Amino acid sequence: MMEVLFLLLLTLFSIHMIVPPPAAAAAHTDSIYTSCSRTRFNPGTVYESNVNSALTSLVNSANSVNFNKFKTSLPGSTEPDVVYSLYQCRGDLSVPDCRTCVAAAVSRLGSLCQDTSGGSLQLEGCLVRYDNVSFLGAAEDAVSLQKCGPTASSGDVVTGREAVLTYLTEGGQYFRVGGYGRVQGMAQCTQDVDPQKCQDCLRKAIDGLGSTCGSASWGYVYLSKCYARFSERGFSTKSGKPPFPRLARWSSSASTVCGFLFILGFL
């Protein structure tokens, strides 16, 4: 009997090891939105050199930290030539993933906002932005993108959404995640703003989610300096990918271990 149960457990663990993890979230380099300045600069100018230097600094910095900001002014620059820039990676990204995301954003900005004096690209895992007008530290809450999904499948999702959004509102960090039942939520500010400006920005984003996407199964609001989003767990976009990583991925492993311990106790 002991031998049979041991073989059964070994089989279960082997199956668990080869089963792939839950579907990964949308790749952190998937595009969310792009915004380009209407003003342009002439190629070969000092401003172009400052833009290239600033964007290179963003990618290099992402090798070690998930946020940084720069004021770039190469020799020979005048005040109109100064470039202000930042990048902000999602709080749960590893350093290698952060750098990959920032590098992808910088590369795309070069073509999407070619020769424009400013540009902003929000990817799934990071934001990259530059401009010739300083925005660093400023409180900006203009809506960049807002979208709601289809109606939720049950009232439990609406209840979970309300609980998650309340939790995200009350959190005090720049990056916040939480889950309730089948609903997950995420919110983040760019770290160039102080905590109070972050809180004000997130409150506006979260209030917008609650009022605009009240009965939806998922929704997101991106403002200039922050975003908030929620989703019914397991929801997939039209591309077949969840809108962001599932929380508590350890649950399936934990259940397997608990089952193993229960059987040992029974023996």
UniProtKB/TrEMBL annotation:
Signal peptide location: 1-25
Gnk2-homologous domain: residues covered: 29-135, 136-235
Any one of the GO CC terms: plasma membrane
Pfam family, one: Stress-antifung
Keyword list, A-Z: Cell junction, Cell membrane, Disulfide bond, Host-virus interaction, Membrane, Repeat, Signal, Transmembrane, Transmembrane helix, Transport
Primary location class: other
Subcellular location: Cell junction, Plasmodesma; Cell membrane
A single GO BP: defense response to bacterium
Source organism, top-level taxon: Eukaryota
InterPro entries documented for this protein: Cell2Cell_Antifungal, GNK2, GNK2_sf
Membrane-topology annotation of the record: Single-pass type I membrane protein
Protein family according to the UniProt entry: Belongs to the cysteine-rich repeat secretory protein family. Plasmodesmata-located proteins (PDLD) subfamily.
Name of the protein in its database record: Gnk2-homologous domain-containing protein
